[in-house]
């Protein structure tokens, strides 16, 4: 129970720090399986409710409550919920369930999430303020209601590591047995129908924007993924490929649009370094996105309406995963491109278990990281342009596994500002 309490606190912090002004995309994988000596997967079963408190510039001082159930109704399934209230008036609630099956032999995993928030006195980057040539002073300070309701339906293909058992997709560690999807790793197809909205209130007039002016979307996100990594928490070998296509069919008060995103990561283990480091890993991620329907238009009541998403539903750079010295949603346009490279080492010296506070936790390893990010956005999909005049971030991080959760604390510097972030999970 003590371990899951600490884990719930870490997951709660993840939701809140990652929310910023956007809901976290994938949350935290709570109930991963571990292989026993006989080759069978085992699952943790526990529950906890824990209070928490933290401070950020946007939210101020906040207090909240989080709860987690591992093994919720089914051994591999989990439930998580959190809520907070800040002294500036911001509040947030988040509930999520993952990895439910309709039968023991099903290859489908189902889940759902509900996210609602009211952000007060928060900086948003809208219109020209989100362009590649904008400055931080162009931010728009406003109040806004945020909401997202989403379903998950993931099919695990009978390939690679999941040929016999689809729940191998939830294993914490897996051996690499090849370099193609039919030999190794987990290949899956996931459908995520969702509703998302943002409504500004008690705020000055919104700046002009080239994005759609609707305040809601009803869309389907389709994800084709090949995960050929040797570890969920600390990959040192393999690759991860993710193609995402998002479509909104439109309605009477909004235009249809579609967007694609491609994320590709590679990891290379370059071995230990004498008595200093037990492990050295080079990690690289490339990300690119585009809205092909951007310039398609039609005339409605004498006005030209373009097939574009609203700003809150677009792909963007900045935040906890790409261009980490910039705030979430700092840059956005029709197209985006980013690169991230990290040098990750695991020191042979690991004193954390003997330090005050840390000695309350199970901390099997820690990791030192140097990283750099490059990225930019543009109003057309042109790889030559996207690779010019790129914004940058660089920094360092300390990451450690605490009660089965990877916690990362990192400092990033860039052209506009520096940023200190605390989050869980590896950035890629």
UniProtKB/TrEMBL annotation:
GO CC annotations, alphabetized: outer membrane
Primary residence: membrane
For this protein, the parts annotated as crossing the membrane are: none
Protein's name in the database = Bacterial surface antigen (D15) domain-containing protein
Using the record, list the residue span of the signal peptide; answer none if the entry has no such feature.
1-23
Asked if the record carries the keyword Signal, the reply is yes
Ranked from the top, the taxonomy reads: Bacteria, Pseudomonadati, Pseudomonadota, Gammaproteobacteria, Vibrionales
Q: Looking at the keywords, is Signal present? A: yes
The Bacterial surface antigen (D15) domain covers 201-402
Q: Mind telling me which InterPro entries this protein's record contains?
A: Bac_surfAg_D15 (IPR000184)
| Protein's cellular compartments | Membrane
A Pfam family that the UniProt record links to this protein: Omp85
Q: Which UniProt keywords apply?
A: Membrane, Signal
